[in-house]
Amino acid sequence: MPRIDAAPLMQFPKPFTLHWERRVLHFRQPAATSRGALAERVTYIIEARTAEGSGYGECCTMPGLLPEPTEEELIFWCSQSEQRGGLCGISAPSAIQFGLECALLGSLRPGQARWDTPFARGEVGIPIHHLIWMADIDTMLAAMQRGIDAGFSCLKLKVGALPFARELELLKTAHKIFPQAEIRVDANGAFSPQEAAHKLAALADAGVSYIEQPLRPGQWQAMAELCRHSPLPIALDEELISCPNHEQMLDIIRPQAIVLKPSLHGGLIAAEHLIKLAEQRGIDWWINSALESHIGLTALAEWCAYISPGKLQGLGTGNLFTDDTPHPVRLHGTQLFYSNTLLP
Predict the structure, then answer these.
(1) What is the per-residue pLDDT for 46?
(2) pLDDT in the model for residue 344
(3) In the annotation, is 261 catalytic?
(4) Which CATH code of 3.40.50.800, 3.30.390.10, 3.40.630.30, 1.10.287.1490 fits the domain covering 7-108?
(5) Active site includes 311?
(6) Which of the residues 14, 156, 158, 276 is marked catalytic?
(7) What is the pLDDT of residues 165-203, one digit of tens each?
(8) Where are the domains of the chain?
(9) Annotated catalytic residue within 14, 156, 176, 261
């Protein structure tokens, strides 16, 4: 697997300055999540300026999982990076680290994709799953039908918000109507250790192929027991956030997969380290976006196409906000494609 050359980021090869801007973006429709419905999104955009041009990165987190970056933190970490001439010795909060990495990588190739790949040349796309937003049963079934009609082979939806019997009914109906589709669910830690085994067996019987984070993070032994005996493969998500020792955690839990969100998991370089740890243990992985703007989504798509071309990812469609910036990544059919439209 190709990996980021971290050397230029650690000691940047040319003079640069960093600038940041706070933006408030508005969802086209309220985004229902397990932590409430969101009408707007605060994000911070970092610009790395050099004599040749600029690169852009984004700093944002999922509400309720990590604190949003503060302006004081942005001032401090941008200043630290400028003073040190790169990220050498920098260990900023996860969202800021992600933004700094993406901005500096972008400034190495201003006006172009960060890596020269078939995706960046517009030759191939990145297959993604079709995300079903939380809603009532009929609305979610209709959204699944639209995904199937569009040609998506993988559908993903949340569980744990509605009564479990109703969610099972939805999943059984979906599996009957769309037997060709892979159905993944995300529990966001909604199950207790006492009920999880029974619920995972029921989900497996309903045709689910993967579940993300069935238990709350931090219950390593309970999660390990679940992973050993579950008829349904388990992927860790929130478990990776603020984990004190990822290697030890993976050795104890031994999940079937991990779901990486670089803005929550320490940035791109840290995410690549997690991928390496997972692959050494035979653990699958994929990348999810986390409600980023077009700037963050573009960086994620370019990186995914570089490190693992053709792999199914959990990236967004780039159509979340009414007031986002121009962007080069667009959904065509069931894949994201790069259109060479320049960033602002």
Answers:
(1) 98
(2) 41
(3) yes
(4) 3.30.390.10
(5) no
(6) 158
(7) 999 999 999 999 999 999 999 999 999 999 999 999 999
(8) 7-108, 126-338
(9) 261
